[in-house]
Amino acid sequence: MSENSATAASGGRARRFAAAALTLPLAVSGLLAAGAAQAHADSGGGIAVSMGDSYISGEAGRWAGNSDTITGSRDGTDRAWNGSSYNASSVYGATAGGCDRSDSAEAISAFGSAGAVNIACSGATTADVFRASSGGQTYKGEAPQADQLAAIAAQQRVGLVALSIGGNDLGFADAISACIKDYEVWYSYCNATEQSAVDSKIDSAMTNVGKAIDEVRAVMTADGYADSDYRIVLQSYPSPIPRSSEDRYPESGWSRTMTGGCPFWNADLDWARDQLIPQLAQRLGQVAAGHGAQFLDLQDFLQGHEVCSTSDSLATDDQPTDAASGEWARFLTTGATQGTVQESFHPNYYGELGLGRCLSLVAAEPAGQNFACRSTPGQDASGVYLNPLS
């Protein structure tokens, strides 16, 4: 679509594109310069823009399941294997090792590369979403995401903004690290200490998530959009690990760590799955309601597809996995033998395809309705479905 036709499609709104004032991701700046994205009916009559952190950027999209084989294609799970070496940029492009925006990221899986722009960045906090004029900060060499959105929305019609943010404000990565150390080193539980840490931060984090939504709204208003011209979808986080009763490895011994890549005590598994993730979903749902955003509850999305679940399996040379039987999240890796540490416990390639279906299903529904998205154990992304939330 040319610049003139994009303007016509947006109802003739007069906008300016101030690309020179921003440091944009390479993929985004190239897309805007070309004016190549086509309007996509499922995203409200315009393109979709995904913003926020690693759970929507596509972190771990390199991996189609998990395998404890450390050479070659890792039993077919490593999408960066080219037959003789590994090239992470084939999945993450120029953002490999940084924002890790994968070719299978949620919005791209939902609407295709012509119907979506992904500006989310692994490790981002709410401050990385705010406009610079509102206290936003440059992160990994890129302008605040709301400022990037302003440039995109000025050039092309945006029909949907998908936002995943707040987890890094709460220190999710630190909590996971602490729980792993308690299992492998200290032989103690992490849940009480980490729950206290979350409780001490969550009010501030949710206030900032609300501000992030308001920042998106302010950008869109400044670019001439009415609230009815687009929708904001705030999503929660899925649990990449199962309950203890659904973990296929025994609690003691080394199989959870060395084979399964899920080194957590049973009590900590149950805390994360049934207390932490639901708590965050509840609070994010409240924020969405208070700031006029649609809510997508993902707390049960990976049920039956988690790392170490009894309902799925690792890939082996004899039995390569697929989206129906394989794990949908990346297991723990030290980065010494497979990929990078930052990919651990994020939705992988299969998970991203499922999340893409979640988003496309939500986009096809009325903007005022909230939904929970779930998957079906033993099925691929075709088994993903929505449940309306009251």
Please describe the biggest sheet, giving its number of strands, its sense, and whether it closes into a barrel.
Answer: 7 strands, mixed
Task: Compute the average pLDDT.
Answer: 90
**Global Rg:** 20 Å
Tell me the quaternary state. single chain
Helix and strand run: HHEHHHEHEHHEHHEHEE
| Helix/strand structural class | alpha/beta
The level-1 CATH class: Alpha Beta
Domain count: the total is 1
Per CATH, the architecture is: 3-Layer(aba) Sandwich
What keywords describe this structure?
Rossmann fold; alpha/beta; 390 residues; seven-stranded mixed sheet; hydrolase
Describe the protein:
- The chain has 390 residues and is an alpha/beta fold.
- The protein has a single domain, classed as 3-Layer(aba) Sandwich (Rossmann fold).
- 34% of the residues lie in helices and 9% in strands.
- The protein has 11 helices and 7 strands.
- It has a 7-stranded mixed beta sheet with strand order 2-1-3-4-5-6-7, sandwiched between helices.
- Strand 5 (294-297), helix 11 and strand 6 form a beta-alpha-beta unit.
- Helix 6 packs parallel to helix 8 (191-222) and helix 8 (191-222) runs parallel beside helix 10.
- The two termini are 39 Å apart.
- The model is unreliable at 1-43 (pLDDT under 50).
- Residues 1-41 form the signal peptide.
- Disulfide bonds join 179-190.
- Keywords: Disulfide bond, Hydrolase, Signal.
